[in-house]
Amino acid sequence: MPFVKRTVQPQLLCRLEAPRGSETPEPGGSEDLVSVSNLALTRVLLQLSDLARLSCSLFTELESELRGGAERILRLQGRVLRLQDRVSELDPRQEPVRKYPNFLRPLVGRGTSAPPSL
């Protein structure tokens, strides 16, 4: 299971902060609609900036992984081209062919049956 590298924490956009020692926010100037909408907009911008920073980090890491993969592919392509050149230089009529014993021939006198015909 992969490890978590990045986490995006959701923001409580319109929740007002309660003063210390109190459970509920104090009524007053911060409860009007303009203040609440400004607070929500500010928190949305903060969350979007956090998301943009994490996405930049993600794409930077992805770019480095893709560059590494591209370098490996280029090295393999060079090796394949060198092998193709080497194989094209070979003349199949001049290369020696090893002779292997015929394993399909039945063993005579050992009590084994002949292999099925091909």
Automatic annotation (TrEMBL):
GO terms for biological process: cell differentiation. PANTHER family: LOW QUALITY PROTEIN: NHS-LIKE PROTEIN 1, NANCE-HORAN SYNDROME PROTEIN. This is Uncharacterized protein. It comes from Eleginops maclovinus (Patagonian blennie).
